[in-house]
Amino acid sequence: MRIISALGVVLAGLSVIGAVTAYGQAKTHSQYDGAAAAVVDDNGNLQVPSDYRTAYQVLGSWAVAKDDGPGSKQLHVVYASPGTVAAYQKDGRFPDGAVLVKEVFNATTNEMTTGTVSSAGTLAGWFVMVKDGAGRFPGNKLWGDGWGWSWFDATNPKKTTSTDYTADCQACHEPARQSDWIYRQGYPIFNR
Length: 192
Known about the structure:
The chain has 2 domains: about 30 residues; about 160 residues, CATH 3.50.70.20. About 15% of the residues have low confidence. It has 5 helices and 6 strands. The protein is of the alpha+beta class. The protein has a 6-stranded antiparallel sheet.
């Protein structure tokens, strides 16, 4: 009877060790926790998070003026992953793993009782950035300067069309270099 009891204790111990080992391996498999883990795979490939409209916080929006005539040619609506705004308000920095998603809409412009109004038309795509304070993907050309960067056409939120952030993304953000590549002035929540 003692041998059976001892064997039971040993088997229970081995089960606990196995569960702890599996948990530890699962935790180290992903380079990020939280929102970024759902956006970044182990090779640093990004995708548009499926829940950004319901789980993320709206930061603000931008209107890009038409080159000819009144109104806007594009509207940009920007979202931040849960906890990003609170962390930024606490210490003035984007936390590691923060995800920013910018929806880009082609605008439609019409005359209304309030005047000439532009509104969101068809979705053109998304621009996704993930804060990377650890330099996790040095061999991936979509990561650098503290962020992962990717553009996605509206037809495929899982496959970026970007190939190199320095050529495809960074030029548009150059004026915001001193504010961690983000145009914070467009987001009132960061300027409180």
